[in-house]
Every structure is written in C-alpha cells, then in structure tokens.
Write a structure and sequence with these properties.
This is Rhodanese-related sulfurtransferase/ABC-type phosphate/phosphonate transport system substrate-binding protein. By secondary structure, the chain is of the alpha/beta class. The protein has 15 helices and 17 strands.
Length: 388
C-alpha cells in the first residue's frame, strides 16, 4: 500500500486548486480566404498537442474562415491565442494581447483596375470585386480608396465573394472593374496577361502569412514557452514557424484601415460611457446589439439584448433593407434608448441607432465606445444571465 506524506498531499491540493491547472488554453486559427492551402496543412490534433505541451496545460484549437466572427472574438477576448492574418492580430493587439511574431515577410497589396480605368479617382461609379468584409483585401481596398477621397459608397457596387483569387478573372471577363491582389500574385498573373489590367494603387507593407498574438495576462513562463514553440516547434503541426516580428506600426496601420464607425451620427446624440451611466440611472434603456454569446459572456449591467442579423456593408451608406432589425421592436420607442456594441470598430450600434432615429424613437443615444469604454471606466457589468 502506498502512503502519501502530508507535504505531498498539500502540494497536490495546491496544484489542483491553481487556476493554471484548472484552466484550459484556447486558441483559434483564422484563415484568410486565399490562404486555404496553408490552412489545410495545419494538423489540428498536432497543434493542440504542441500547444498543450508548451503551455503545460490542456489546450483546444478551433479553426474558422468566418473572419467577421473571428474579429468579434478579438473584441471580446474570446481566445487566449489568435493565429491569423494581420487584421486579426491588429485588432487583438489593441485589446490586451501581445505579438509573438509573423510567419512570413510583409506583403504589398495592389488595387488593380481594368485597362479602361485610368486611376483610383476614376473608380467612382465603378464595380469592385472583393472577398468577405473582414478580409485583409477589403481593408486594403478601403484604405487605398480613402487616400483618393473615395469610399465604398462612391462605387456602383462592391461584390463580396469567397474566392478573391477570381477577381483577376472577373476583370478579364468584364464582370468587375477592379479588385485587390497581393503584389506577388499580380507579378505572376500580369506576366501572362499583358495589357489586360493596370495597377491603380499600392498599399504600405502588411505583415504576411499568419500573425500570432497571445493574451498579455497569461503567466510569463507560459507566454515564453508558447513563443518558443511558435518559433521552432509549430512546423510539426503544419504551421510555419514565426520568422520575424513586424513593426508595431504595420499592425496599427492595418487597424486604422479597418472599418471604423464615424465620429458622429446626424440626428443621434453620441455620448460617453459615464454619460450613458447617468442617463441609465434616469430611466434610459441601454440596448446591446451584439451577439447572444457576447451578451451572455459580459455586458453593461441592466442592458437589454436586441441583436440583429447584419448583412449590409459596414459603411455610412449601408442598406438597412439588407439587415434584420426586428429585435428593436421590443424596445419602447417612448423611452430614451442608448445603443452600444463592441466599440468604435463595431457598426451594429451605429446602424441600430440610425434606424431607430428614422423610425421615430423619441430620444436616441449612441455609445460609440460601447462595452470596452464602459469597462475601461470601471462601470458595472454582469454576465451569464439569460438573454432578454
């Protein structure tokens, strides 16, 4: 019969009670639509095994091609580790994460137009072919158009598809007037399609391949071991090891090209978190327009859940008919209402506030900073309650 000494028992007890022993490390691999080949090489079981060994605790790994969902996860700190394209890391780095590195050298992106489009300014009233809204290609397109004083609302149409590599073919077929491609892809394509398209604009460097970001509040030794694994051991799981650490400015630039809401909304009062708290105490209703999962995880205390299905462009000229605003019907139109979501990059509260104002809600407020601003000010939050 084996006997366990009291000190050993105490050690086992402390180990079992420690957060590190109980917690499970979570990671997500976010896949850019054009990077499917790289994603297919990643072996999920080997990835989980490698992370578990490196962190000294159990790890789970999810994968997703839905970049809108992944970007929401960065705003709500949904995972301990994000592995994804530059815009995913850029968003995470603003919300309590730190950079481990990138797997490839930085890329340049090109806005390429048909031979009949002379320059970026000539894109007004033209058609643009892009992948999903939260793709790095869409970020780059918006930035290059903005530099020429244009936005997506100045175009005839923006076609969002799952296969961005088909944009060049769409140019040749005449079904679009412009698209965005990586400089390396353009060099290969243009060599065999001379004179069929032209470069209208070139982006600043963007971190290439996968970028890895980890939560700052993970234990220092865990972060160090994870860094070592991503630098030398991740190739066994099908992920190229981190090759470099891009300048922070490259990620900031990507974030700035992101889909930030305007600073103001005509017909709606923009307020701060503390002003929202005061209005709420006076009877105003805080309306949370995020997903049910986000609402249950953490929300402004006393907020009501009124999410909707968002399909329209993240743009001031969004088409409200493409979105489902039925959830707003449960909000009393005669009470002051405050719309909030996940901060300046989240368009849901902007769109809901604009629609509510147009539908005759008596007094409409917009908390642009949303839950992140409320939380940063130390105002009361709640979680795990029923949505309703």
């Amino acid at each position: 019969m084996y006997r366990t000494t009291r000190p050993a028992l105490l050690s086992l007890l402390l180990l079992s009670l420690s957060p590190l022993a109980q917690a499970q490390l979570t990671a997500i691999v976010a896949v850019e639509p054009t990077a499917k080949k790289a994603a297919h090489s990643i072996l999920r079981s080997a990835f989980e095994s490698g992370l578990s060994k490196a962190a000294g605790q159990s790890a789970t790994v999810a994968t997703s091609e839905d970049l809108a969902d992944v970007m929401r996860a960065t705003r709500s700190a949904g995972y301990d580790v994000f592995v994804g394209p530059a815009q995913v890391a850029a968003s995470a780095l603003q919300r309590g994460y730190e950079l481990v590195g990138a797997t490839q050298k930085s890329d340049l992106y090109l806005l390429v137009g048909s031979a009949q489009v002379a320059n970026v300014a000539a894109m007004k009233g033209q058609r643009l072919y892009l992948p999903q809204q939260d793709s790095i290609y869409t970020y780059m397109a918006r930035g290059m158009l903005n530099e020429a004083g244009l936005s997506f609302q100045d175009l005839k149409s923006v076609l969002h598809e799952k296969h961005p590599q088909a944009g060049l073919s769409a140019l040749v077929l005449g079904s679009t007037d412009a698209t965005v491609v990586r400089a390396d892809d353009w060099a290969e394509w243009s060599a065999t399609h001379k004179g069929q398209a032209r470069v209208l604009a070139t982006s600043q460097p963007v971190p290439g391949g996968f970028s890895i970001a980890v939560k700052k509040d993970l234990p220092a030794d865990v972060k160090a071991r994870l860094g070592q694994w991503f630098a030398s051991g991740s190739s066994a799981a099908g992920l190229n090891p981190i090759a470099l650490r891009p300048e922070a400015g490259e990620y900031r630039r990507v974030a700035e090209l992101g889909l930030f809401t305007p600073n103001s909304l005509p017909g709606v009062n923009r307020i701060t978190a503390r002003e929202a708290q005061k209005l709420q105490a006076e009877g105003a209703v805080v309306v949370d327009t995020r997903t049910e999962k986000e609402f249950k995880t953490k929300r402004i205390r006393g907020a009501v859940f009124a999410a909707y299905v968002e399909k329209s462009l993240k743009d001031v000229a969004f088409n409200a008919a493409q979105d489902d605003f039925q959830a707003l019907e449960k909000v009393d139109r005669n009470k002051p209402v405050i719309f909030a979501c996940n901060g300046a990059e989240c368009w849901k509260s902007y769109k809901a506030a604009k629609v509510a104002a147009s539908k005759g809600y008596k007094t409409v407020y917009w908390l642009r900073g949303g839950l992140p601003e409320w939380d940063a000010d130390g105002l009361p939050t709640e979680s795990n309650g029923p949505a309703g």
